[in-house]
């Protein structure tokens, strides 16, 4: 009797020990998992380990003060860790609270599960082909009821027709996500909290939302890109671009819980992206982390049903090399892939029966549409001002000539009127000769002269001014000609002569009118100068 009692007692003790170790192991496992998935926690974990090492070293060598400080850190560190990891702890507890032991999906029969997978694959294939954006989340053990509330409740059977209709862009329900609970389409237009991870710019709001929901729940989210038609799966904060076949394999595993074969060979560590792997993983270089190829990540979970009879490792390797991506190596069963291919081609045929409405071609936005309205207004105003200035310049071609004359007058105002009168005669006699010359010839002559003769002390400002006027007006024969008149004569005559030439270009100018012109031009020049 005593023996029986002690045996039961020892069995109970062993059971207790077993559960004790199991719970501790689970705690350790999940702690390491949380630490490893978060770069912030890795840093903090390293810090804690460092303090423990310092404490041990201090104890060994009898460094009392260092040991005391390390002790303080350890005893208060517990509270610090709780404060620092508050968001992580909260989400962990939330997950525990919301997890169902029996998820809706697990209560479905085998046929129902397979039907669900087929309908999903068919819908995604159509949406991908049509490049219609979609976001479909499959509830697992963690309830998505909170997110169902954010959308439009539907509670209908999952069919490819319904799914594709929802995401047609002209429908009111297309914006947001569809949530599937079990084999029911719970809601459309649901809103998911987007991730805060730093992602490449090509991933927009839809992909962010998919990663976001996969971070806080154990749901599996399928994303169809509107831009590329690519299909991606988000799970556990990771997103992976998959092919149609890979999508089906993955869903079979997730929904039907088919026994899978995880690749066992090639256990060497290799660089793999932390959360992004596209069809050609070698092209992706962002945020690489060291992971084991055979570890149970998202990629490795995509495997096929286990069957009797094996295929040689060589064939598997060849297959992997042929496909050239991470998914390829995991398919161990040739027969199985053939069966899958058959089912896929069947689905493709069925998919052809569903036609989506033709998309309206959107007008590509011009770059100016993205600019600020104020900047746009400023640009328009500047353009108008430029046009106005051009129109004015065209309407008043003589203005530069007048300006040049005024400049000449300003420089030469010191010269006496008598001198000007004395030089009137030759100017008048020369006038017909000048007027005979074409304005272009004058311009050429003026430029030549200016180049040949460097301006003399007295004449320099005039020459410069004339040259400037000539250059400015080189494009316009009228302006150039007028400027040349002044330039040419400046070399031999006084500025008053030039003025006379200018103003008597087409008609006879008498002394009186010339004086008046000189005076008025002088007045105008001084006014402008004042301005
Ligand atoms: N937080 C969210 N929850 C649910 N759906 C969202 C959320 N954010 C965006 N979406 C959906 O994504 C659409 C916008 O996608 P966006 O073009 O920004 O994403 P994307 O990741 O660049 O994908 P695509 O390649 O399809 O363009 C929205 O019209 C909406 O339907």
UniProtKB/TrEMBL annotation:
Single GO MF annotation: adenylate cyclase activity
Gene3D superfamilies linked to this entry: DNA integrity scanning protein, DisA, N-terminal domain
GO biological process: cAMP biosynthetic process
Residue spans of biased composition, Basic residues class: 422-431
Chain ranges passing through the membrane: 12-32, 44-62
Disordered: annotated span: 352-531
Uppermost EC category: transferase
Start-end of Basic and acidic residues biased regions: 432-474, 490-501
Reactions mediated catalytically: 2 ATP = 3',3'-c-di-AMP + 2 diphosphate
Residues of the signal peptide: none
Cross-referenced Pfam families: CdaA_N, DAC
Keywords, comma-separated and alphabetical: ATP-binding, Cell membrane, Membrane, Nucleotide-binding, Nucleotidyltransferase, Transferase, Transmembrane, Transmembrane helix
Extent of Low complexity compositional bias: 392-408
Domain DAC intervals: 86-246
Domain of life according to the entry: Bacteria
Record-listed E.C. numbers: 2.7.7.85
Similarity comment text for this entry: Belongs to the adenylate cyclase family. DacA/CdaA subfamily.
Subunit structure, as described in the record: Probably a homodimer.
Physiological role: Catalyzes the condensation of 2 ATP molecules into cyclic di-AMP (c-di-AMP), a second messenger used to regulate differing processes in different bacteria.
PANTHER family attached to this UniProt entry: DIADENYLATE CYCLASE
Protein name per Swiss-Prot or TrEMBL: Diadenylate cyclase
Organism: Holdemania filiformis
Gene: dacA
